[in-house]
Amino acid sequence: MNTQQKQTITIETIVHAPLEKVWDYFTSPAHITQWNNASEDWHTPTASNDLKVGGSFSYRMEAKDGSFGFDFGGVYDAVEEHALIAYTLGDNRQVTVIFTADGNSTKVQESFEAETMHSVEMQQAGWQAILDNFKKYTEQH
Fold it and tell me: Which residues does the UniProt record annotate as the domain Activator of Hsp90 ATPase homologue 1/2-like C-terminal (predicted)?
């Protein structure tokens, strides 16, 4: 039995947009395919999202040159509209996303359990890059 405590990584950003827009852009597949990448040489050609407790989501993430790709997905454990999303990834790691309105801006905070293949710093940088891309996309559209 593995008794090792999983390390939790937390990232956040302030999106200069109203909560309702931030929620919609974060959860709508039409928008997810536009922002869900950590660098310009990656993209998300398809995304599906059944945003309810017990519902699942799947984002296909691929290198634009076709050299590598994977499905990022899981099942929702909790959904509180405009406030919180919690889900379990396919490898049983837990993720929580909290949305907090502050006037015409919205704080998005993600906490996720680290996996063991990549360094904590690399995981934090990758997830933060995706969240930063989400912020940029949401503010520009």
Answer: 17-138
